[in-house]
# Entry
Amino acid sequence: WARGNYINDEKDGLWSVHEIGGDRAVHHWSKGLREGLWEWWRSSGERKAIESYVGGKRHGLFAQWFENGSLYYCGTYDNDEKEGPWVEFLENGKMRKLELFHKGEQIKAGQ
# Structure
């Protein structure tokens, strides 16, 4: 289920989302557009993911965590496109892969 406000038939303000299985999320909306920090947690209370929005587009940090709490994947969006380094980790914390992006285009792939 989800709980939040509508203004002029558009989502606006803070929304709380509870998913089947117990995971939950907090989303921010402004005049029907995604805005600010979006956060997800597992039913255990461990953080699952975060991402930021500006004017409905992903902008800023994106991060996702394994169930054990260690970082799985992280990078940055600029105007809804991947920008700079994106890193994927193994559950033990070691880096699995590093990719570089510019304006959404992968400019370097690696391990």
User: Anything to note?
Assistant: The two ends are 40 Å apart (CA to CA). The CA atoms of residues 67 and 77 lie 24 Å apart. DSSP finds no helices and eleven strands in the chain. The chain has a mean pLDDT of 96.
